[in-house]
Amino acid sequence: MEHVEMRNTIPALAIVIPCFNEEEVLPVTAPLFLGKLKSLIAQNKIAPESRVLYVDDGSRDRTWQIIRRLAKDAHIIGIRQSRNRGHQNTVLAGLMEAKDLFDITISIDCDGQDDLDAMDQMVDAYLHGYEVVYGVRSSREEDNFCKRFTAEAFYRLMKLLGAEVVFNHADYRLISGRVLRELAEFKEVNIFLRGLVPLAGFESTSVYYKRHRRAAGKSHYPLVKMLGLAFDGITSLSARPIHTITSMGLMVSALSFVMIVWIVACFCMGRTVQGWASTCVIASFIGGIQLLCTGVIGEYVGKIYLETKARPRYIISERTFEREDLL
């Protein structure tokens, strides 16, 4: 563990909570988030001007109306994206909104699954000098076998591909304003915050907690979205799949050359037999490899296409507050 210095000032905290169609769960978890914020204020760990910041990801239900109603409490503020742009962009929007208004942020999902008491340890770690504090799941007992297997396989695959990610860490983390201002310099559209935050560097540590079941409603992150996030993470953080394709191409070329030599030798010895089986097997194998390689290359080309457009990663259409009042 790196040597860090204690901080003497009390930080202003923003608890950043992304929301998408969460009208069922918000009334259940909102009092919990507010209670934790007020508890930290009462313990003199964070400043009284700390806030809970909800970020609506273009929800189609009553989520924004609920956020506006919650914002009648002075400790709650909210922003709304102009349309749905995905979880990672929504978290980023909240972090960028908070970076100049607060000293630290803690991002957390609104479903109530992450242990709020871990925030105390996160703030303590910040006060002890750390700039980034990762919330890491101590176990996955609550997950079914499929989700547990795919999640752990994803983290191991990312490590194998050379990407720097924290095992069993999602998007529950504390980030200081200093780190957020550096993250603002990362301009890529293909966002994977679990990989970008470690790339920024700075002193970091982890706190471990046990995850609970969802408080209400249904998960908005099915297997398809999880796979999409995995592909974004891989293509955002690692070029190793391209290198793997090159190695695979060399290997297949070498095997093909050996096979050509063998076929010519058989022909010269008069041992060739006409047939379709070997031809079909070879054609299918080579065709499958080519399609796989083309698909992986296409993923990278598509990401390059999006990056060159340099479109906004998020657009905030409404706020429940005036920024000038918080500055």
UniProtKB/TrEMBL annotation:
Stretches assigned to the Glycosyltransferase 2-like domain: 15-182
**Which Pfam families does UniProt cross-reference here?**
Glycos_transf_2
Q: Which InterPro entries match?
A: Glyco_trans_2-like, Glycosyltransferase_2, Nucleotide-diphossugar_trans
Its annotated compartments are: Membrane
Q: Which keywords annotate this record? A: Glycosyltransferase, Membrane, Transferase, Transmembrane, Transmembrane helix
Entry keyword Cell wall biogenesis/degradation: no
Organism domain of life: Bacteria
Sample GO molecular function, one term: glycosyltransferase activity
Sorted alphabetically, the Gene Ontology cellular component annotations on this record are: plasma membrane
Q: Indicate the transmembrane segments per the record.
A: 250-270, 276-301
This protein's record includes keyword Transmembrane helix: yes
Protein topology in the membrane: Multi-pass membrane protein
Recorded hits in PANTHER family, A to Z, give: PROPHAGE BACTOPRENOL GLUCOSYL TRANSFERASE HOMOLOG (PTHR48090:SF1), UNDECAPRENYL-PHOSPHATE 4-DEOXY-4-FORMAMIDO-L-ARABINOSE TRANSFERASE-RELATED (PTHR48090)
Q: What is this protein called?
A: Glycosyltransferase family 2 protein
Native species of this protein? Schaedlerella arabinosiphila
